[in-house]
Structures are given as C-alpha cells and as structure tokens.
Amino acid sequence: MPPSEQPLPPFVLRRNFILTPFEQRFQGLLRHAWQQRSWQIIAAVPGSGKSLGIHDLVTHTGARKEAGGRTALPVLAIRAPKNGATEQALGQALSAAFGAVPPMPWYLRRTWLVELFASTQVECLIVDDAQDLERHHLAFLKELTDNLAAPPYERLVGLCLVVAHSGQGTPFKEVFSRPEILWRQFRRRLDTQRPICTVLGHTAEEVRLILTAFEDLYRSQLPDLHLRRWADTIFQWLTHPILDPDATGRVTMDHLTRLVTSSLLRAYQQKATYVDPATLLELAETMILKRDAVVLIDGTPADVALPVFQVQ
Amino acid sequence: MDALDLQHPAWTHTFPHRVTPKPGESLVSLLLRCDLENHWASGTSCRWLLRALLPKGSVRVNRANLFLPPQQLIALLAQRLALPFDALVATTFLREHLRFFGTMAPSLGDLCFWSGFHLCPLCIQEQRLLLRSQFLFGRRCCLHHQVLLLPSCACGTLLKPFHLTTTPFTCSACLQPWGTLPTLSVAPEELDQEHQILACYEWWFKHGDAALMKTVLLQLAALDTRKRPTPRSRWSSFSVREARRRFLAGSSHLGSLSGLVGHLDELGLLSRFSLEPGETDLIHPDACQQEGAHLESD
C-alpha cells in the first residue's frame, strides 16, 4: 500500500492547560485573594476558562493528605449547589472537598466544618458558579469565615466568588444593596480596592499568542502548522455579535479552542500538514451562521437482516 | 503510604485526615485516633464502616469485630485511609486466624477471646495507643509501664471504646480523658506471669496451628485426669475446660487459644511455650506422660 493510502493514526486532542493571558489575569486575582486573605467577586463571561483556571490553581497549591494525619488544603474550591439548594447542600459540597465524610446532622456539620477548615489550614475558599448562590448560602459563608476568624482559631480566610457574568450590571448588586445588617457586614469584608472585578477575554494580540501555543502543541501532527498569521481574521470572526453578544470585543478561550481544534481535526483527516484559510472560514461560519442550525440525522438501511434481540 | 495530592483519585475516597497504624496498635485504637484526627465523636468512623457493610441492619459495634473483624471492614478502612490492606490486618488477629484455620473469615470467639475493654492511661497519655496484644484474654497489665490495665474510670463507669456523645479517648460519663486516669503499679510476680502469658500467645501466633493446638489440648486432657489444676484468678471468669471441650468436639465457636493459654497457666506450663519450637518438648506424647508424672509427684 502506498504511504498516501495508509490509514492515519487517530488525531490526538491535546488537553494541556495553556496559561493564557486571561488565565494570568484571573489566577492573579485568585492568588491576590489567597495571599491577602481578601474577599472578591470575580466575574467573566461564560466560556472564558474560569473553572479550568481554578482547577489549575488548586492543583498547584500543595494540597496533600499525609499518611500520618496531617492534611493541608490551602485553597479549597467548590462549585455552588444548584437549583436553590439549601445551606446544607453548600455544607455537603464543602465537606466533599475534603474527601469521604460520614453523614452527620447539620448542626454538627456546621461546627465540624469550622474545625476541619482550621485543621487543614484552609487559607482561601473559591466558589465557582457563584451566581447560583442564594441568600442563605452567603449567610452561611459569612458565618463559617467569622467563626474561623474568632478564637480559638483566629484564621482569616480569603473568599472568591467566581461568577459567570453577562457583562451587564454588577454581580450580587441586588443582594448587597439590601438594608439588612448581614449584607452590610458582607459588603464590608470585600476587598477595598477591587471588591468586584470582571476579567476580560482576549485581544487580537493575545489571540496571536495563544495560536502560537496551539502551533507548538500540534506541531507533531501537523508539521507545517502556521496559525498565528490568521490571528486578526480569527479575532474578527470570534468577536462577531453572535459569539460576543455582550459586545465585549474580546475572544473567549472556549470559542478559540473550538475553532482551532475542529480545524486541525478537519485538516488532519484530509492528510494536510497545515490548516488552510478555507477550512478556518468554513468552521467559523459553522460556529457563527449555522450555530442554531438543527442537524438532521438520517441514514440508509444496510442491505442485511436487522439484528433481533430477545426481550428479557 | 505516600502522601496524596489533590489530583490523586483516592483523594475523594479517603477520610479528610488519614492515620497510619503504629507498631503493635489495635484496630480500636486506630479507629479512635481516626475519629480524633477528623474531629468526630468517638466511634463515628467505626459505625460508618459497619453501616456501609450492613446497610439495612441496625449498627451495633460488636467488640469481637474489633478483634477479628470481617475482612470487608478492613478492606473498606484501607480504602478510606489509602493504606495497604496488610498494614491494617496487622491491627487485628486475622493473619493469625488464617494461619490456624486457613481462613480469614472468623466466627465469633475463634482463636482468642476479646478480654474486655481496658487500657493503660500512660500509653494513652504518651502515644494515644491501645496495643493489640493487651486485649488478649488473660492480660491484666501494661508491660511497658508496669501498671494495671484499667477497665473502669475513676468515676466508676465501665470504660467503653466508643461512645457517640463524647470525644475519643474520654470517659463516656464524666468526660475525663483516659490519659489522666490514675495508675496502679503491678507487683513483680504479676509482671512475670504477664510476660509468660504474652510470650505463650506470641509463641502460638508464631509457631502454632490448629493441628498442634489440638494435640496439646488432648495431652492436657490426659494430664487433667491425673491432677486437677488450680484455677488462677485471672482465668476464673472463663471456662477453659468448656472451650477445650468444644474445640475437641469440632466446634469452631470457641476461644480455643485463649482456653489453651489459660489452661497452660493453670498447670504452670506457660514457660514451655516461650522457647523456640525445637526446644519445647510438651507437644511430644511421651513428654506429656512425663509431665503428668511430674505433676502427680508434686
């Protein structure tokens, strides 16, 4: 069989974490809250890479369970419980981050969590998808951190509420504008200089940097890959109002990754060694113009007897 | 027994704080330390493990389960602590049971009896430790600190290993820490006897098996017909002869080794089982008869 007709090995999708400019900004805020033990609300549009950034940060904080009883979890990250869950659900989510925990009544778990936060040296708590937090969740977070700050623990804990945000309005604005003392106390704990931040997506120049990183990642499979020359064009496509409904003028990592990886896959299947602009354009159009198109799945019946299975 | 990082798949299956067995430590001690490290009430981890094994039944902690626990309990605990199964088996008498009976699935009272819960306050104070061997039937004192093992608190309450309303290592009634209980010194002759009993158990755990135990019990039965031994106080609550009778009748429902050690103590023959196997002669039928004659002449 001639080399050109030999079947290709399957395309390998790289799952590497790229410390993009967005991630640098986002993780910078998280690290600031961790180091300063400050409270911050951090917002970014969906698909920016918030969850990946949190995961990457947490796995590099030196969290470990030693066999001799010592456990360290400097940065504890959870996802907010969904569907208006109770404060118990938040307690369960916090408990589960430590590992296997026996069931216990809520009144015990409340105090137990304080002890465990102290004994595992939690320094910063990150709540992802914090837009799903309810009023009683926020009240419980305040109670938990207040108990840790009081004797005998006297431990200040940073808090980052990471919010998927449309860019319109201020996250938690309605909650914090309420007159109750609780919200005034909550508000008072927020960072003085940057209490509420929105982390922006990528500029055209940053897209160029990321495309360079993609080239390096996939060089072994597509040796002549040269994506960065299309950076400006890709930036224009991905800031189209359909993909950027909030008109941020920035590109999210999710859109960029989708466009690049599907183009690379298409090129690889065509046995090309690089991605041509036509492929990029076609996939960008699919993402923009055919975004809501319904794909009909059909097929031709094979000319063989259909398999029949006995029903138990 | 390496440290687990957050990306390790075992992170979510392990207790928040892991503990490792200390040399010679008992399972009850390990579970108590596990509760203490994790800020749980005394007996929480034990009950949780048992509940996982018996999801529908009411969970009562049987003390025999702490001595010769079901293998599944050890396997589950090994998962929760991310430790090798064998490291946790060492806190029980399962390995010895396997050597004797060819199975790790014990029935209640097999091999050796749980003597009742008692502790050395100084071991608790220094290391939070309850040794596995101190629960062997007939044991009464701590050989390291030369004090009596206490079965009750200074307030008069019988000590319990677990009590869900108290913190680990404290009295369930007055909440006094076990490590602060008063100690009682032991007389030298009592210590000698304690050494002999422990050495005898260890001899059997190291060299014994069911066949050898049966042989020796038969020989002791022959001695018994000639001279009735004088029961010593530490064995008085335990029917040594009944255990032996059941063992010889083929029942597995007995504390056979405890019975044997008790009987050897009553006959003053413990020292024969602290030697290496080639050096002891009691297991030989002729030697048994000689021993019988020796006893009759006393």
Outline of the structure:
With 312 residues, chain A is an alpha/beta fold. Chain A has helices at 21-36, 50-59, 87-96, 106-119, 135-149, 173-176, 181-189, 204-218, 231-238, 253-269, 277-288; strands at 39-44, 64-65, 71-72, 75-79, 124-128, 158-164, 196-198.
Strand content of chain B: under 5%
Kindly estimate the percentage of residues of chain A that lie in beta strands according to DSSP.
Answer: 5-15%
Radius of gyration computed on alpha carbons of chain B: 21 Å
Number of strands of chain A: 7
Structural class of chain A: alpha/beta
The rounded Rg of chain A comes to 24 Å
What order do the SSEs of chain B take from the amino end to the carboxyl end, as H and E? EHHHHHHHEEHHHHH
Task: Estimate the mean pLDDT confidence of chain B.
Answer: 81
Structural class of chain B: mainly alpha
Biggest sheet of chain A: strands, sense, closure?
5 strands, parallel
Order of helices and strands of chain A: HEHEEEHHEHEHHEHHHH
Numbering strands along the chain, what is their spatial order in the largest sheet of chain B?
Answer: 2-3
The biggest beta sheet of chain B reads: 2 strands, antiparallel
Shape category of chain B: globular
Question: What's the shape of chain A?
Answer: globular
Termini distance of chain B? 55 Å
Note the quaternary state here. Answer: heterodimer
Q: Give the low-pLDDT segments of chain B.
A: 283-289, 291-298
- Report, as a whole number of angstroms, the end-to-end distance of chain A: 47 Å
